[in-house]
Amino acid sequence: MALGRRNQERQEELWVATQRLPTSPGHAFYEKLNRLLAEAGFDEWVEALCEPYYAKEGRPGIPPGVYFRMLLVGYFEGIGSQRGIAWRCSDSLSLRKFLGVAPTEESPEHSSLSIIRERLPEEVHHAVFVWILTLACEKKLLDGKTIGVDSTTLEANAAMKSIVRRDTGEDWKEYVTGLMREAGAVGRDAEPTVEELKRFDKARKRKKVSNDDWESPSDPDSRIAKMKDGTTHLGYKAEHAVDLKTDMIVAAEIYYADEGDTQTVEDSVQTAQANLTDSGSDVRVKDVAADKGYHSAKTMETLAQDTPFRTYFAEPKQPAGQTHKWTNKSREQRDAVYANRRRARGERGRRLQRQRSEKVERTFAHVCETGGGRRSWLRGLLKVGTR
């Protein structure tokens, strides 16, 4: 066999027979996923769901089934941006087959994905999420009696250096310059250099960048938060409620990054119960496991009195020699804390905590790390939640 040499310049052919077009056997995973979606009638269902949001006449747009498959490709391939998803689908023959795009057709562009995302409201994306839970319920992959809750931070598509004061609209440079002039570190008409600004800002005391005082003009819904790697960025909080028996995510909520876990846990569990009900399951959530970040006396009292959920929340360790003081607390609050402590320290409570740390953290690894969702390329609480 002679050595083949790569052509540096190739003249494109004027006409190519369809028999000569390249083909692909397809990826085994995507082939099985397509068969599963076809058996469940996903394309017919989602087209009927999205039909009210399209015009009755005109050039046909991208089928909704193709749009949602491209979102799945982004998750499975670890691509966070729509531009990257569109390029990957255009470049891969197996993914084009998964989408149902013929070799002679152009795959959807990233701008088309943006248009469809703006066209379809959050309710449609949530309906698709519930449809998947319904399919899981039919396949006996959903239990729902015991769920684990945890949260993580997502980096927003906005830079810290772009934040401005909520009261005056000043950016960081204008704000620190004003402080220097008030302190007499620079003349009234003088403009300090960037190095002088940094030096003064680093040395001043009682320095705090608060969400009450600062906001991002490009993404007002983002909040200043500490990421999992210890850095400080503008971001959001993602909270998952996971079925601890089957590993299924039954609720995936997005909140402001400065909302505490004790503020959002009840909403997430109630959303999980609503999703289970909408999926056709008659199971009621009974037990909820969470880490110590979700524990507070007020939260324990609220969940014990206003909900049917039984809590297994890890309790923060008290400093040596200190105990809880119930002087100004109600008896119901004290009883709720003691009841949760008794359950969490029992054999079942310890087992649920091990399952929670294993299975809920795994979902964040799938969505944020493997799925490319740690950094959001969209802006606004609604768009990030939809994505």
Written account of the structure:
With 387 residues, this protein is α/β, with parallel strands linked by helices. It has 3 domains: 21-120, no CATH class; 142-157 and 221-386; 164-208, no CATH class. 45% of the residues lie in helices and 12% in strands. The chain is built from 14 helices and 8 strands. It has helices at residues 28-39, 42-50, 64-77, 82-91, 93-99, 110-119, 122-138, 172-183, 194-203, 261-278, 297-306, 331-344, 347-370, 381-386; strands at 146-155, 164-165, 214-215, 223-226, 232-243, 249-256, 287-290, 310-313. Strands 1, 4, 5, 6, 7 and 8 form a 6-stranded mixed β-sheet that branches. A two-stranded antiparallel ribbon has the order 2-3. Strand 7 (287-290), helix 11 and strand 8 (310-313) form a beta-alpha-beta unit. Helix 3 crosses helix 4 (82-91), helix 4 crosses helix 5 and helix 11 packs across helix 12 (331-344). It is globular. The model has no long low-confidence stretch (mean pLDDT 87).
Percent of residues in beta strands: 5-15%
Structural class: alpha/beta
End-to-end distance: 52 Å
Characterize the biggest β-sheet: 6 strands, mixed
Q: Estimate nothing, just give the exact number of structural domains.
A: 3
How many helices? The count is: 14
Which parts are unreliable, with pLDDT below 50 for 5 consecutive residues or more?
none
Mean pLDDT: 87
Shape: globular
SSE succession: HHHHHHHEEHHEEEEHEHEHHH
Q: Summarize this, please?
A:
By secondary structure, the protein is of the alpha/beta class.
What keywords describe this structure?
45% helix, 3 domains, two-stranded antiparallel sheet, 14 helices, alpha/beta, six-stranded mixed sheet, globular, 387 residues
